[in-house]
Write a structure and sequence with these properties.
The protein is α+β, with helices and mostly antiparallel strands and 118 residues long. The protein has one domain. It contains 3 helices and 5 strands, in the order H-E-E-E-E-H-E-H. Strands 4-3-2-1-5 form a 5-stranded antiparallel beta sheet. Strand 2 and strand 3 form a beta hairpin.
Length: 118
């Protein structure tokens, strides 16, 4: 079994995708709080998702693959669903994650620390 977003998370993430597209089209800044945190329990990778495409194949957020770099960009959700860590464990969703800052702030602080601090 792999991660499964709740109905509320999916609704918020898909709505954010539309706002992100509108912001890009108008040249505006789009810096929301993330909605969901995904992680590999056995590989040290973390993703904070702020938007998901309506077909739920792509997400937009900040990623830390455990290599010392924290970057904002698109994430292939199908790839994450297939991903397994060193012990064969799938990506999980952090049900207790409560965002307290914007995506760009997570990225900036993560780049300074060399890891995502969520």
């Amino acid at each position: 079994m792999t991660f499964r977003l709740t109905k509320i998370q999916r609704k918020k993430l898909i709505a954010a995708w539309g706002r992100m597209d509108a912001a890009r089209a108008s040249g505006a800044t789009f810096d929301p709080f993330p909605v969901a945190k995904l992680f590999t329990p056995d590989a040290g990778a973390t993703w904070l998702l702020a938007a998901v495409s309506p077909d739920e194949t792509l997400a937009w957020g900040v990623a830390d693959l455990g290599l010392g770099f924290v970057e904002i960009g698109e994430v292939d959700l199908e790839e994450l669903r297939r991903l397994r860590g060193r012990l064969g464990l799938p990506v999980e969703i952090d049900r207790w994650f409560k965002p307290d800052r914007s995506l760009a702030t997570y990225q900036r602080e993560g780049q300074a620390a060399g890891r995502l601090t969520a």
